[in-house]
Amino acid sequence: MCDHDHANPPIRSVAIEDGASHDHDHLAWSRRDFLTHTAAAAGGTAFLLGSTPVYASSSTTLLQALASMDTDRVLVLIQLGGGSDGLNVVVPVTNDRYYQVRPTIAIPEAETFALSDDYGLHGAMSSLSPMWGEGKLGVVHAVGYPDHNLSHFRSTDIWASASGADETINSGWTGRYLDEEFPNYVSNPPEFPVALRIGGATGMLLRGGATTMGMSFSDAGQFDQLAATGELYDEGDVPNNVFGEELSFVRSVYNASLRYVDAVIEAADAGTNDPNADYPGGSLGSSLAIVARLIKGGLQSRLYVVYHGGFDTHADQSNSQPGLLQTLAEAATAFQTDLEAGGRDEDVLSMTFSEFGRRVEENGSRGTDHGTASPLFLFGGGVNGGLYGDGPDLDNLDNNGNLLHTTDFRSVYATVLQEWFGLTPGVSDNILGGNFNPMGLVMVSAENPIPLIQAPFALEPAFPNPFAYSTTLAFILDRPSQVRLTIVDVRGREVSHLVDGPRTTGRHTVRFDAYNLPSGTYFARLETASGSKSQPISVVR
Amino acid sequence: MDRRSFLTRTSGSKPLVAPAYPPIKAPSVSSGLEPYAGPWGERQAAHLIRRTHFGLTRADLISALTQTTGQAVNSIVDAAIARPLPDTPPWYNQTDNGQNTDWMYEWQESWYNEMRLGGLRERMTLMWHDHLATEINVYYHAAFAYQYITFLRQHAFGDFRTTLRGIGLVPAMLIYLSGNVNTGSSPNENYAREVMELFSLGILGPDGTPNYTQQDIAEAARALSGWVVNMNNLQSEFVSSRHDSGSKTIFGLTANFDYNGFIDVLIAQRSSQMASHVATKLYSWFVHPAPNATIVAGLATTLKNNNFNIGTALRQLFKSAHFFDDAFIGARIKSPAEILVGFFRETSHASTDNTLARFREIGFSLGQDILNPPNVAGWPGYSPDQYRAWLTTGTVPERQGYVDAVIFGDGAFDELDPIPLAETLSDPTSAPAIVDDFAKHFLVAEISPEMLDYMTGILLDGVPVWEWYNIYTHDQEAARNRLRGLLSFMTNLPEYQLT
Question: Phi first, then psi: what are they for A142, rounded to 5°?
Answer without folding.
Answer: 40, 60
